[in-house]
Amino acid sequence: MIPTATLEDRLRTVARERYHDRHPFNIRMHDGTLTPAELRRWVLNRFHYQRHIPVKDAHITAKLTTPALRRSWLRRIQDHDGAADGEGGIERWLRLGEAVGLERELLLSGDGVLPGVRLAVDGYVNFCRLRSPLEAVAASLTELSAPGIMTARIAAFERHYDWIDREGLEYFRTRVGQGSRDSAEALALVLEWARTPEERQLAVDALAFKCDVLWSLLDAVDGGDRP
Ligand SMILES: O=C(O)c1cc(C(=O)O)c2c(n1)C(=O)C(=O)c1cc(C(=O)O)[nH]c1-2
């Protein structure tokens, strides 16, 4: 039997070693060498991911079997959708869009989202819709690495892209705390639920799949716009 500590180590290793902070496009973003057009392409395409996070969290919530679990997962939907119009993570991402020069109407229209990004996001939503609660929750564990990448991103944007209004970075500032809390909560559930070696392997594989989703998204953005 593999002890629980080993599963946590395996998950943390996957979340670290296969994370999209190592993707060439992310490295260029943080080095400050993206052109404004490239940065806009990333913000526009990532909005497609952002707006689907509460959809996938609704699929996960529907699989949870106790009021306490559903209540805690519902909070994630509210983090993104807000308690009212003009609040929440999706609204903050729209403001990031405006700070880089993209009209919110353009982001909301979905125009310009790359085919590879649509496929990656569909893949993630459908994975959480079709797989077990263990696998769906384990897939969210990329967020073990998210607070680190967000902190690095805030510093990189402030340093290298001074044409972007700092207020636009509020999405990332808010996500540092939310991501730490969400990943701790998800990790505790996965460690509790994955009791057999097979279940532990499913959790690790789910996390590896999610790393591939994020990697594919950046591959598509790195490939440039359609002619
Ligand atoms: O910018 C990023 O690098 C990044 C990564 C991730 C992630 O690691 O999954 C998320 C986010 N951002 C994010 O903003 C977010 O709301 C989020 C939700 C989830 C999830 O799987 O439930 N991941 C992420």
TrEMBL record:
- Entries under PANTHER family matching the protein: 4-AMINOBENZOATE SYNTHASE, PQQC-LIKE PROTEIN
Q: Which InterPro entries match?
A: Haem_Oase-like_multi-hlx (IPR016084), PqqC (IPR011845), PqqC-like (IPR039068), Thiaminase-2/PQQC (IPR004305)
Family that this chain belongs to: Belongs to the PqqC family.
Q: Which residues form the Thiaminase-2/PQQC domain?
A: 9-219
* Family annotation (HAMAP family): PQQ_syn_PqqC
Q: Which EC numbers characterise this protein's activity in its record?
A: 1.3.3.11
Q: In which pathway does it act?
A: Cofactor biosynthesis; pyrroloquinoline quinone biosynthesis; Cofactor biosynthesis; thiamine diphosphate biosynthesis
User: What is the superkingdom listed in this entry's lineage?
Assistant: Bacteria
Reactions catalysed, as given in the entry:
6-(2-amino-2-carboxyethyl)-7,8-dioxo-1,2,3,4,7,8-hexahydroquinoline-2,4-dicarboxylate + 3 O2 = pyrroloquinoline quinone + 2 H2O2 + 2 H2O + H(+)
The record's section on SUPFAM superfamilies has: Heme oxygenase-like (SSF48613)
Query: What is the enzyme's main class?
Result: oxidoreductase
Q: What does this protein do?
A: Ring cyclization and eight-electron oxidation of 3a-(2-amino-2-carboxyethyl)-4,5-dioxo-4,5,6,7,8,9-hexahydroquinoline-7,9-dicarboxylic-acid to PQQ.
Query: Tell me, what is an example of a GO biological process annotation in this record?
Result: pyrroloquinoline quinone biosynthetic process
From which source organism is this entry? Streptomyces coryli
Q: What is this protein called?
A: Pyrroloquinoline-quinone synthase
Keyword set for this entry?
Answer: Oxidoreductase, PQQ biosynthesis
Family annotation (Pfam families): TENA_THI-4 (PF03070)
* Single GO MF annotation: pyrroloquinoline-quinone synthase activity
